[in-house]
Automatic annotation (TrEMBL), chain A:
Part of the Sec protein translocase complex. Interacts with the SecYEG preprotein conducting channel. SecDF uses the proton motive force (PMF) to complete protein translocation after the ATP-dependent function of SecA. One of its GO terms (molecular function) is protein-transporting ATPase activity. Keywords: Cell membrane, Membrane, Protein transport, Translocation, Transmembrane, Transmembrane helix, Transport. GO terms for biological process: intracellular protein transmembrane transport; protein targeting; protein transport by the Sec complex. This is Protein-export membrane protein SecF. It is found in: Cell membrane. Residues 117-300 form the Protein export membrane protein SecD/SecF C-terminal domain. Forms a complex with SecD. Part of the essential Sec protein translocation apparatus which comprises SecA, SecYEG and auxiliary proteins SecDF-YajC and YidC. InterPro entries: SecD/SecF_arch_bac (IPR022813), SecD/SecF_bac (IPR022645), SecD/SecF_CS (IPR022646), SecD_SecF_C (IPR048634), SecD_SecF_C_bact (IPR055344), SecF_bac (IPR005665).
From TrEMBL, chain B:
The keyword Cell inner membrane applies. InterPro entries: SecD (IPR005791), SecD/SecF_arch_bac (IPR022813), SecD/SecF_CS (IPR022646), SecD_1st (IPR048631), SecD_SecF_C (IPR048634), SecD_SecF_C_bact (IPR055344), SecDF_P1_head (IPR054384). This is Protein translocase subunit SecD. PANTHER family: PROTEIN TRANSLOCASE SUBUNIT SECD (PTHR30081:SF1), PROTEIN-EXPORT MEMBRANE PROTEIN SEC (PTHR30081). HAMAP family: SecD_B (MF_01463_B). Forms a complex with SecF. Part of the essential Sec protein translocation apparatus which comprises SecA, SecYEG and auxiliary proteins SecDF-YajC and YidC. Residues 163-219 form the Protein translocase subunit SecDF P1 domain. GO terms for molecular function: protein-transporting ATPase activity. Keywords: Cell inner membrane, Cell membrane, Membrane, Protein transport, Translocation, Transmembrane, Transmembrane helix, Transport. Residues 351-520 form the Protein export membrane protein SecD/SecF C-terminal domain.
């Protein structure tokens, strides 16, 4: 029978005999991650986030000079003289494009519109308005609230799902990894002073989705191996599981990054920050599922499934790390009460 | 896992074809699509305001102001009721959230309470049935307290909102676009979306005006045609009607009563004839003016004019002295409720404030579409190349799956009428990456099974089977996140979540079912010859 696609083999770039002792680095990774998380929290509370108009209210206007580059310093001088509070002016993509942000005006929504009108009138007809966003205080506080709720609701939904599908230890490990991803991404945005708006919340939620995806794939393999290698030491088993799924983790990461790089480079200025958050989030999400979620299980220990175990003598634990309390419990569980 | 029954193959192929069929209109211009024969799908993906340019305004009503206005009206009504009942009172005024009045003579207390209780109206018009009363009247000692109920206030806000929507809609439509939408959001907000609008100044000015409702007397002898041919009498003016028949009326220019004096208007049914009516109520000064006018003009028509157009010109059957009356005539349930809303929109000129404005100029929108297309194309190409390089022939199958996935997303979004936004495009690109993940899981698994020494067919079968659980787990968790984004999100988050949700569903079909079918067909093409090598 004829088949339109000829047979040709793919390029298996990944050295499959690789056995990277990931678990050996867990101390280092945990320390590093803890430092990053602490630093992110510190940045969040001291430097804070550069919130966009979605979250603090105020106005944003993107203008384009009709001919030739925009004169930022002149613009700055003119607009700051208007007496409408702090005005931020930055070049946006091309040198003809300028993004102007005016802070929330005191005295409610009407003042907001008035300030916007002043800006437009001052700029004159050489500038065309490409985009205007004016968000009042009521709406911005609502958006802030629902944004926060969305992130936490997603986290909770994910915890519940992972908890149902796996043991609670997996859920805890996954959640720590997720919190880590969100915190560090937020920390990076604070550090670089990038604008944090609604679209960044969307990207945070996607990062959550991606990271949990990664963790679940590794967890799935750990669960499978727990059944397969009933006597293997937990640290070794985690290591084997991570290594076995590593080629998938890397390839999927590569395809995801290819798509996001395309968005970052060609997607335009409007979604640049969004794409950047996504790119960073995918890198950090991949890292966290390998170096945080899985090693957490090493600390927490898991109930070993002994269904269909070999004779009793063999079922007794052969190797067990004496240092970890969790592993001791696992040992007790394996020896003492075989489930069902 | 690898055997496909014939009907399943046909079903998969049909789904793919449907995907292509519903996607295709998006590749052509609107005019081209319109010229197609009727049996072809014509629907195109609506573009979000951020892509086609346009204005998005969120307006909020001042509910505090509404409450204040109502209390003032209640105070005036109480005064009128007590005067009619000829009861002496002092200290009438608004105290906090209610109206209080002291009755001078204790023996008149019962009579006074009875009179004030006449103000209590059941909520909900006759059409929807009653939902409690709008106010409560309580008396203790020498004091009568009139307090609006929670439901009463809600009803008030809701009435005002529908009136405001009516006003905004009428004005926005007058600007000449039919594609604009005006919808209620929450209890006290109105969302106006106006595609293609660049300069929002005119729109804002229009929305900022308060509706002008007036009641005029109609010239007794001269018809509009005669007035146009000869000349309009002094003090009179020709007003067009809102109805499509193009009828006009000659009305006295000075109104008898203005809309500010109208307190409320609700649709209902005449208790005797059971025909749809509109009942309305004036405040004290309005009632007096309207009473005198109707007494002198029984048998002749008067005109209700909203923003200089005649809504209706009913004939006065009998004098309306108490301030409340009803308009009956050839109304349907719908037209009665429309007229009531129109009357209210003039009667309750709620101030609307712009709490959120997002305007995108068409040039930025066009740039965004171009950027989105380019990014999408490059992203898809890069993913396809990576997949084919990594997995050879099976990689090609995965890419075919991806193409199906792309078509299905667009087709589903088109069928559902979901708006495509820039974050939506980003979501689309992302789902391509996520869809390929399923294939990566399957193929890596096949490779693993091969390495462990399984026969090619067993390895392929195991690969699909084992990877399926993982795929399900990982896609379901992402779906949970996407659904929450949709549920709680607003604006850009929503557009993104919609694409992501649809993308997760189609990616499972494309990556698992379509690819598996292709692999199964490929196996069949090998016939009885034993496969030596699996091309992954």
């Amino acid at each position: 029978m004829f088949f339109p696609v000829p047979d040709f083999k793919g390029f298996d770039f990944f050295p499959h005999n690789l056995r990277i002792p990931f678990m050996r680095y867990k101390g280092l990774c945990f320390t590093l991650s803890l430092i990053f998380m602490a630093a992110s929290l510190g940045l969040y509370f001291t430097k804070g986030l550069n919130y966009g108009v979605d979250f603090i209210g105020g106005s944003l206007i993107e203008v384009q000079h009709k001919n030739g580059p925009a004169d930022l310093s002149e613009m700055r001088e003119k607009l700051n003289a208007l007496g409408i509070g702090s005005v931020q002016i930055q070049s946006f993509g091309a040198d003809t494009d300028v993004l102007i942000r005016v802070e929330q005006q005191k005295g409610g929504e009407g003042e907001q519109q008035a300030a916007m009108k002043k800006v437009v009138d001052t700029l004159g007809p050489e500038y065309t308005q490409r985009r205007i966003e004016v968000v009042g205080p009521a709406v911005s506080s609502e958006l802030r609230r629902t944004g926060l709720i969305a992130v936490f609701a997603s986290l909770i939904a994910i915890i519940i799902y992972v908890w149902f599908r796996f043991e609670w230890q997996f859920a805890l490990g996954t959640v720590v990894a997720l919190l880590h991803d969100v915190l560090v991404t937020v920390g990076l945005f604070s550090l670089l002073g990038l604008e944090f708006d609604l679209s960044i919340v969307a990207s945070l939620l996607t990062i959550l989705g991606y990271s949990v995806n990664d963790s679940v794939v590794v967890s799935d393999r750990i669960r499978e191996n727990l059944r397969k290698y009933k006597r293997m030491d937990l640290t070794e088993l985690l290591n084997v599981s991570i290594n076995e799924t590593l080629s998938r983790t890397i390839l999927t990461g590569m395809t995801a990054i290819a798509g996001i790089l395309a968005l970052l480079i060609f997607g335009g200025e409007v979604i640049r920050n969004f794409s950047f958050a996504m790119l960073f989030g995918i890198l950090i999400g991949t890292y966290s599922s390998i170096f945080i979620a899985a090693p957490m299980l090493g600390f927490l220990g898991v109930k070993r499934d002994t269904i269909g175990s070999a004779p009793k003598v063999e079922a007794a634990p052969v190797i067990a790390p004496a240092t970890s309390a969790g592993a001791d419990r696992a040992k007790a569980a394996a020896a003492g009460r075989p489930r069902r | 896992m690898l055997h496909f029954e014939r009907w399943k193959i046909i079903a998969v192929v049909l789904v793919c074809l449907a995907g292509v069929l519903f996607t295709v209109p998006n590749f052509f211009s609107k005019q081209t699509v319109d010229s197609w024969p009727g049996w072809l799908p014509h629907r195109q993906l609506p573009l979000g305001l951020d892509l086609q340019g346009g204005a998005h305004l969120l307006l909020a009503m001042d509910t505090k102001e509404l409450e204040k206005d109502w209390l003032t009206t209640l105070r005036d009504d109480t005064r009128r009721q007590l005067r009619e009942a000829k009861v002496g009172f002092t200290g009438l005024g608004v105290v906090g959230n209610s109206v209080q009045v002291k009755i001078t003579k204790p023996e008149e207390m019962d009579k006074a309470t009875e009179a004030v209780k006449k103000l209590v109206t059941p909520i909900g018009n006759a059409i929807l049935g009653s939902g409690g009363n709008d106010i409560t009247v309580a008396s203790s000692g020498d004091t009568i307290t009139v307090t609006p109920t929670q439901q009463g206030m809600q009803h008030r806000v809701s009435s005002a909102a529908s009136a405001a929507i009516e006003t905004v809609n009428r004005r926005v439509n007058a600007m000449g676009t039919s594609e604009s939408t005006v919808v209620r959001q929450g209890t006290d907000r109105i969302l106006v979306q106006f595609p293609g609008l660049q300069d929002t100044k005119q729109l804002k000015d229009l929305i900022g005006q308060t509706a002008k409702l007036t009641f005029h007397s109609v010239h007794p002898d001269i018809s509009a045609e005669e007035a146009k041919q000869t000349r309009t009498p002094v003090g009179y003016k020709v007003y067009p009607s809102t109805e499509a028949d193009g009828r006009s009326y000659v009305l006295q220019e000075t109104p008898v009563v203005s809309g500010e004096d109208l307190v409320d208007a609700q649709p209902g049914f005449d208790q005797r004839t059971n025909e749809p009516i509109i009942s309305f109520r004036f405040n004290q000064s309005g009632a007096r003016k309207f009473g005198t006018f109707t007494k002198d003009n029984v048998g002749s028509p008067f005109a209700i004019v909203l923003d200089n157009k005649v809504l209706s010109a009913p004939v006065i059957r009998e004098p309306i002295l108490g301030g409340s009356g009803q308009i009956s005539g050839s109304f349907t349930v719908d037209s009665a409720s429309t007229l009531a809303v129109q009357l209210r929109s003039g009667a309750l000129p709620t101030k609307l404030t712009i709490v959120e404005e997002r305007t995108v100029g068409p040039s930025l929108g066009a740039d965004s579409i171009e950027a989105g297309k380019l990014a999408g194309l490059v992203g898809c190409l890069a993913t396809a190349v990576l997949t084919i390089v990594a997995y050879g022939t099976f990689g090609v199958f995965a890419v075919i799956g991806l193409i199906v996935h792309g078509f299905l997303i667009i087709a589903l979004m088109t069928i559902l009428g979901t708006t495509l936004t820039l974050p939506g495009i980003a979501g689309f690109v992302l789902t391509i990456g996520m869809a390929v993940d399923a294939n990566v899981l399957i193929y890596e698994r096949i490779r693993e099974e091969l390495r462990s020494g399984k026969s090619p067919i067993a390895a392929i079968d195991q690969g699909f089977q084992r990877a399926w659980i993982t795929i399900l787990d990982s896609q379901l968790t992402t779906l949970a996140a996407a659904l929450i984004m949709f549920w709680l999100g607003s604006g850009p988050i929503r557009g993104f979540a919609v694409t992501l949700t649809i993308g997760i569903l189609t990616s499972v079909f494309a990556a698992v079912t379509v690819t598996r079918l292709l692999v199964s067909l490929w196996l069949k093409s090998k016939g009885k010859s034993r496969i030596v090598e699996v091309p992954v």
